[in-house]
Amino acid sequence: MLCQLGHVKFESSGVNIANISRQSSYHFANKSIINGFDDWQQVGRHSQKLTLSGVLIEQSMGALNSLYALAEKKEPVTLALSYGQALTVLIMEISADQSNFLKEGEFYKQSFEVQLVVIHGNL
After folding, report:
1. Which of 119, 64, 115 is CA-nearest to residue 86?
2. Could you tell me if 113 and 91 are in contact, meaning their C-beta atoms sit under 8 angstroms apart?
3. Tens digits of per-residue pLDDT, 71-89?
4. Which residue, 83, 88, 82, 92, is CA-closest to 113?
5. What are phi and psi of 22, to 5 degrees?
6. Long-range contacts formed by 20-29: CB under 8 A, 24+ apart
7. In the prediction, which pLDDT does 77 show?
8. Given this model, what pLDDT does residue 15 score?
């Protein structure tokens, strides 16, 4: 298992993840000062976002349906990573791109991206 998002498992043989990327944002407010440097002040905590992306080859047309169903609940879920770390996240966006269509109209290749926001835990 590469990771598990709620009850959806990402494995090397099924729904594959090709990349996990992380973005940390640090929030500041600034005040402009005439004839001087801007004044910067830290505002709130930092925020973390994760993006899981991958490619499905020769998978069922409904391979991502359980992931969409999980996101439609709009509830926090646990992301368990293969090295033992667990984070509480919100699924913010899922995008999928289907290509390489067969004669019957089914697609051969489907790439996907899942954007998450960490609400509890640190990477």
Report:
1. 119
2. no
3. 999 999 999 988 888 999 9
4. 92
5. -125, 140
6. 20/50, 20/51, 20/52, 20/53, 21/50, 21/51, 21/53, 22/48, 22/49, 22/50, 22/51, 22/123, 23/48, 23/49, 23/50, 23/51, 24/48, 24/49, 24/123, 25/49
7. 95
8. 60
Per the CB < 8 A criterion, the answer to whether 35 and 41 are in contact is no
Answer yes or no: are the C-beta atoms of 118 and 45 closer than 8 Å: no
8 Å CB contact between 25 and 47: yes
Q: Which two tokens stand for residue 53?
A: 């992306």
Q: What is the pLDDT of residues 30-51, one digit of tens each?
A: 988 888 888 888 888 889 999 9
Quick one: pLDDT band at residue 29, thresholds 50, 70, 90? Answer: very high
**Mapping DSSP to helix (H, G, I), strand (E, B) and coil, where does residue 98 land?**
strand
Written as one string, the DSSP assignment of 25-74 is E--EEEE--TTSPPEEEE-S--EEEEEEEEEEES--TTTTHHHHHHHHT-
119/112 Cα distance (integer angstroms) = 22
